[in-house]
């Protein structure tokens, strides 16, 4: 009984993790990434699998349990569609995709609920479902080569590939175990725990930005002048692996349209503006331009604008907060932290030095006349 209680607790934790995955995807990425809804569907399917394979879940019932079974057993199709959306730029959902999912989910419902009443029907449906699961898992993993070269250039892309392969192999193992008539309890528990680990990895990928490359270097001149942009700036960075057109478009959005000022700007939103997948933009920012991550890239523009404004004698009376908000920062505290990390000075100290340097220059010019 204690082991059963422990197992139920572990499964509850797995369900909670998948619900967090769904929430983050729908709230943070749904508007800017086409794969977000399919990823959320994967989360629902993972939660449903943890529930339907739990102890005491009804083994034969066409009632309230059927939606849970359908989502759990239809997960191979969702996995395949999610993999296509992540790695195939030409992919688009079609009505026949829903028909395929309905067929596979229907096989799962029948095979799960008919063992006691129609075993002659449940057996073939279960075997067909296992073969379909293996097939769709292979198809999902087979999407990786379509975006391999770009994905492996970033830590996030490499983790995504490992996550996709891990989920596909887990599906194939569970299906093969079913075909071999292995004990289902230990298999289902290990599979649920594996899915929980996958959910943790997914949450980490979505909520945290793995560092990429080296941070841009910028500082303040000895006389308080605004520092030049980092050596590998948009103006001179044009590495061969990246599209010059994409680079020019990004430069135009940031330097001319000042998109960095936009409230709530994320890498997904910027990717939509550029018309490219998010992972490709991330690669361009990290490896093509040498920025540590998207926030470092964004702050480079915001801080350069703020430093220019603070060093402008015509804006001497403009409050620091106003300058920070105009540059795109949401509040004063993160602006002060970013500014101090970049220049070694507070915004007020920077302005004071810039003003003193300008006064000295003006006095020297007056004496020379």
Notes on the structure:
The protein is mostly helical. It is built from 16 helices and no strands. Helix 2 packs antiparallel against helix 4 and helix 8 packs antiparallel against helix 9 (184-207). It is elongated. The termini are far apart.
Number of strands: 0
Which outline best applies? Answer: elongated
Order of helices and strands: HHHHHHHHHHHHHHHH
Q: Percent of residues in helical segments?
A: 55-70%
Helical stretch count?
16
Largest sheet: none
The Rg value, from CA coordinates, equals: 27 Å
Summarize model confidence as the mean pLDDT. 77
Distance between the termini: 95 Å
How many discrete domains? 2
The proportion of strand residues reads under 5%
Q: Which regions are unreliable across 5 or more consecutive residues at pLDDT < 50? A: 209-241
Based on secondary structure, the structural category is: mainly alpha
In a few lines, what is going on in this structure?
The chain has 369 residues and is mostly helical. The chain contains 16 helices and no strands.
Which keywords apply here?
369 residues; 2 domains; elongated; mainly alpha; Arc Repressor Mutant, subunit A; 0% strand
Outline the secondary-structure elements.
Blueprint: H1 2-29, H2 36-52, H3 66-73, H4 75-87, H5 95-113, H6 119-141, H7 144-151, H8 155-179, H9 184-207, H10 244-256, H11 267-274, H12 278-288, H13 294-310, H14 320-327, H15 332-343, H16 347-368
Helix pairs in contact: 1-2, 1-9, 2-3, 2-4, 2-9, 3-5, 4-5, 4-6, 4-7, 5-6, 6-8, 7-8, 8-9, 11-12, 13-14
């Amino acid at each position: 009984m204690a082991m059963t209680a422990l197992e139920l607790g572990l499964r509850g934790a797995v369900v909670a993790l998948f619900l967090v995955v769904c929430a983050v995807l729908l709230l943070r990425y749904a508007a800017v990434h086409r794969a977000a809804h399919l990823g959320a569907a994967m989360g629902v399917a993972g939660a449903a699998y943890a529930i339907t394979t739990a102890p005491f879940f009804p083994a034969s019932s066409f009632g309230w349990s059927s939606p849970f079974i359908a989502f759990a057993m239809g997960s191979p199709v969702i996995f395949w569609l999610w993999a296509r959306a992540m790695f195939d730029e030409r992919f688009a959902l079609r009505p026949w995709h829903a028909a395929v999912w309905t067929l596979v989910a229907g096989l799962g419902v029948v095979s799960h609920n008919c063992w006691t009443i129609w075993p002659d029907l449940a057996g073939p449906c279960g075997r067909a479902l296992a073969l379909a699961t293996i097939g769709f898992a292979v198809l999902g993993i087979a999407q990786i080569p379509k975006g391999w070269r770009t994905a492996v250039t970033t830590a996030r892309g490499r983790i995504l590939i490992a996550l996709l392969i891990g989920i596909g192999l887990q599906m194939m193992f569970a299906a093969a175990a079913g075909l071999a008539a292995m004990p289902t309890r230990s298999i289902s528990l290990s599979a649920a725990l594996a899915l929980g680990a996958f959910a943790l990895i997914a949450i980490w990928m979505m909520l945290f930005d793995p560092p990429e490359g080296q941070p841009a270097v910028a500082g303040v001149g000895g006389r308080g002048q605004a520092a030049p942009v980092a050596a590998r700036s948009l103006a001179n960075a044009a590495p061969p692996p990246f599209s010059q057109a994409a680079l020019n478009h990004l430069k135009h959005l940031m330097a001319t349209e000042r998109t960095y000022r936009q409230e709530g700007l994320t890498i997904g939103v910027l990717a939509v503006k550029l018309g490219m997948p998010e992972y490709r933009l991330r690669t361009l920012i990290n490896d093509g331009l040498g920025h540590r991550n998207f926030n470092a890239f964004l702050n480079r523009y915001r801080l350069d604008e703020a430093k220019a404004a603070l060093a402008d004698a015509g804006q001497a009376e403009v409050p620091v907060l106003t300058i920070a908000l105009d540059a795109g920062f949401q509040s004063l505290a993160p602006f002060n932290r970013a500014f101090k990390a970049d220049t070694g000075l507070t915004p007020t100290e920077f302005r004071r030095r810039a003003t003193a340097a300008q006064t000295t220059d003006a006095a020297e010019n007056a004496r020379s006349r």
